[in-house]
C-alpha cells in the first residue's frame, strides 16, 4: 500500500495502522503534497493570505539611510565607524557598522565583508549579535546590528576597578559563550577570533559574540586551515598552519576564561611590549601560570581548554556538550540560560557609558588614490539586500506593528494594487504604525502631515 493512494489524513482503519511502516523521512513530502493542494487553494482565498502579502510586501521595502536616525559614534571597526541609530518608524535602537567602500577596495576586503554579512544572516542566536538590515550610501556599506549598551569585556576587565572579574561572573560569561559557540557550530561555523573586545554586553548584562569577519563555514566532513586571528589568542594549530575544524574556538574560550579571572591573557600581560614571534613561541611551548585567583575547577577548565594538542583538548570529541559537562558549570542550569531565564551577576548602569569618549575615538584617515566604478556594483548589490527576516519580524512584533497588520479590515476598505499583487488599507482617520510605515513607502496617499512621536536622542 502506498500513501499516495490513500486519503489524508488516514482514517482509523488499516491505513492508519500501516503508517508505522513508513519512515519519518517521507513525512515532510507527504504533508507538503497534501497542503499544496486543496488547503492551499482555500488559504489563497482567505483574508489570511492578504495579510501575508501585506507583511511580505512591507518586509521587502527598500532600506536606505533615511530609514534611520543616526546618533553618536560608539567605536570603530576595521573598515569604518560604529554608531548608534534608530529606525524612524518604530523607534527601535540599533548599532550601525559602517564599512567605507574605498577602504574595502584598497584592502581587497570585499570577500571578508560579504562573508561576515552572509554568516550574520544565517545565524539566529541570542548569544550572537543579530544582523537586522543592510544598505548602502554613496560612500559606505552599512550593517545594522543588535545594539549592546553594556560595552565590551575588554573595557570591563581593564577599565573598571581591579583587572579581572570574580569567578562567578567569569563562569556565567563562559557559559553563555559556550551556548554561542554551540549555535555557531550547529551551522558549521568556526569563529576564530574569540577575545574580550569582541564580546559585548547588553543592557541586562547578557553577552553576545560580535565581529564575525574572520568566521568561516566548514563543509560537513572536511577540515580547513588558515593563519587568521589575533596575536596571543590564536590556537597552536592555527599558528602552525595545520588543518582544524572547531578546536580553535575552544582554545579561545580558554584564553578568555583565563583573562576574565587573572586580568591578562595567558601568554602576554596587559600592554606588555613583546614581539609577535615571541608570543607565538609562548603559545606553542610555554605552560600558562595560575594564581590563587583560580579555584580548582576553574584551573582545571582552563588547562583542559588550553591543551596544545587539539585532539586532546576539551570539546574536541563532543563539542559544547562535553564543555558544558565540566564541573566548573555545576551551578549553571543551561536550559534556563538558553531560555533567557537566568539573571546575570552584573547589570550595567543605564546612566553609564561603557565605551571611549567620542573625542578619544581615533578618526579614520582619508583614503586616497582609490576610485569606485561600475565594476564594484555587483558586490554592492549582493551586500545591500535590505532587512533580514527574523530580526525584522521581531521588531514589528515588539513595536506593535504586527498587530496593526493583522487587524481585520472590512473588504470595502481594502484596495487591490494589481501591479504589486497585494492589498493594503485605504488611509483612515486613525493613524497606526502600519499606516505610517506604508506611507513611508509612498504607496498610500499622504493627506495632512503628521508628526512622529519618537525619541530625538539616544
Automatic annotation (TrEMBL):
UniProt-listed InterPro entries: AGC-kinase_C, GPCR_kinase, Kinase-like_dom_sf, Prot_kinase_dom, Protein_kinase_ATP_BS, RGS, RGS_sf, RGS_subdomain_2
Annotated catalytic residues: 193
Pfam annotation, one family: Pkinase
Span of domain Protein kinase: 68-329
Record-annotated RGS domain positions: 31-53
Source species, domain of life: Eukaryota
GO cellular component: cytoplasm
EC number assigned by the record: 2.7.11.-
SMART domains the UniProt entry points to: S_TK_X (SM00133), S_TKc (SM00220)
UniProt binding sites for ATP: 97
Ranges where the AGC-kinase C-terminal domain occurs: 330-395
PROSITE patterns assigned: AGC_KINASE_CTER, PROTEIN_KINASE_ATP, PROTEIN_KINASE_DOM, PROTEIN_KINASE_ST, RGS
Keyword DNA-binding: no
Keywords: ATP-binding, Kinase, Nucleotide-binding, Phosphoprotein, Receptor, Serine/threonine-protein kinase, Transferase
One record GO biological process: signal transduction
Family named by the database record: Belongs to the protein kinase superfamily. AGC Ser/Thr protein kinase family. GPRK subfamily.
Protein name listed in UniProt: G protein-coupled receptor kinase
Species of the source: Enhydra lutris kenyoni (northern sea otter)
Gene: LOC111148957
